[in-house]
C-alpha cells in the first residue's frame, strides 16, 4: 500500500522535473517556428509550418560563416591544447624537482585569473601586435586559458602510470623524449578525451573573449554573430529564436550522441579544486 | 653509460613545458603586470597621451555611485548562484540516487544547458521573461490586464539572472553530488538503521560529512563561475536598466569600450581579480579544513 503511493509520488515528481527543465527549450521551439504576425501565446505550437525565421536568421546573422569560423578556431585550438598540455605535464609529473613543483603551481594558479580582469591590457596588446580579428590571435588566447586545467588533468594522469614503464623503456636505449611519444602518449587516450570535451565545449561556446577579439563579420563566431544579430533585431523574436536554436543545435546533437563521455568529461574537469 | 643517461634524462625534459610557459608569459603574466601599470594612469584606451595619476583610480572607486550596487550584484551572482546550485544539485542528486525509471532522461535534460553557450541560454530565458510577448506574460495576462516587466525591475532582474545561471550549471553540481553519494558505502546506513537512527539523522551524520569533498568542489567552482558572470547578463539585460544589474565584469566592459575609461576599467579588473581570488581561496581553505576535521 505504502509502496504504491510512493511510486506514484516519484512518477509525478519525475514528470514535473522533466517538464520544468524542458520549458525554456519548448518556448525556444514555438518562438522560432512562429510567423512574425502571429501574436498567439508562446505556449501554443503554431499549426502551420513556417521556416522563414530560420532562413532570415541564417542569412542576416551570417551563421554559415560563423559555423566555419567556430569549427576552424575550436579544431585548431583543441589540437594545440592537447599537444602543448600533455608535453608540459610530462616533466611536471616525472621530474619533480623543487623548481618544477613551483612551475606546476604557477601554471595551475592561472585557473583563478578571471580573463576579463586582464581584458584592458590584453586588448591593447592585441592592437599593438595586430592580432585583432585573426584566427591565430583568438586561438592562442583559447589555448592559453584552457592549458591550466589541461596540465592539471594530464599531470594527475601521468602520475598514475607506473614509473617502471619509463625505466623499462630507457633500458631499451630510447631517449626520454622518444619515450614520451612512443610509450606515454598512447596511454593518455582516456584523459585526452576528457580534455577535448572540456576545452572543446569552452572554446565552441566562448563569448567573453570572442566578442572583443573578433569584431569583423568574416571572423565572427556563432555567439558573436548572434549577439550582433540580437542587438539589431531584438524586436523580432522569431528571428532571434531561430538563430539561437541553430546556434545551439550542433553541440546539442554531439552531446546527445556522446552523453556519457560529456557528463563524465565535464565533471571530472570540474574536480579541479 | 652514466653520463649518457644523465644527458637524456632529467632537466632535458623541462624543454617540454617551454611552449606552455611561453604562452602563459605572453598572454597572462605580461598583460597582468601591464594591467597594474595601466590602472595607475588616466589612459583612455587608444591615445598616446596619458599620465600617471597614482592611486586616483582606486580612490575613485570609493566615490563611484555605481560601485556599491555593482559589488552587491557581483556578490549576489557569486554567492546566490552558489547557494542555489548546491541546494538544488544536492536535492536532485538525492532524488536520482535510487532506481527510478526516468533517471537517465532527467539527468540528460538537467545537464543539457551545461553544454550550451551561456549567451544563448540567456537569450532563451529572455524569450521567457521579456515584456513584449514573453512566455511568462502570456500567463500573467490571463489573470490581469497589464504585462509585467521583470527584466526592467532593478530589484528583481538580478535574481532572475542568478536563477538563469543556476538553471544552467546546477547539472554539474548534481552529477558531482550523485557520484559522491554513490561512493558512500551502504554499510554505514545499514548500521545506522540497526541503531534506529532516523533518515534525517542519517543524512546529517553520514551523508553530509562523507559528501564534504564534493561540497568543496561545487562551492569553489560555482563561486568562481558566479563572481565572473558575464554572458548571461549581457544577453538578458545588458547590465541595465542603467547599471542596475551590472556585475564588475560587465561594468568593466562598458567603461572600456563605451566610455573610453581604460585606466579605471583596468583598476576594476584588478579589484575583480583580488575579490575572486580572496573569496574562492578562503572558501577552499575553510572547506578543506572542515574536511580534515572529519
Automatic annotation (TrEMBL), chain B:
Membrane topology: Multi-pass membrane protein
Main location (coarse class): membrane
Domain ABC transmembrane type-1: 71-285
PROSITE patterns membership: ABC_TM1 (PS50928)
Keyword Cell membrane tagged: yes
Alphabetical list of InterPro entries matching this protein: ABC_transporter_permease, MetI-like, MetI-like_sf
Keyword Cell wall biogenesis/degradation listed: no
Entry-linked Pfam families: BPD_transp_1
Keyword set, alphabetical order: Cell membrane, Membrane, Transmembrane, Transmembrane helix, Transport
Family: Belongs to the binding-protein-dependent transport system permease family.
Name of the protein this chain belongs to: Sugar ABC transporter permease
Organism in which the protein naturally occurs: Paenibacillus profundus
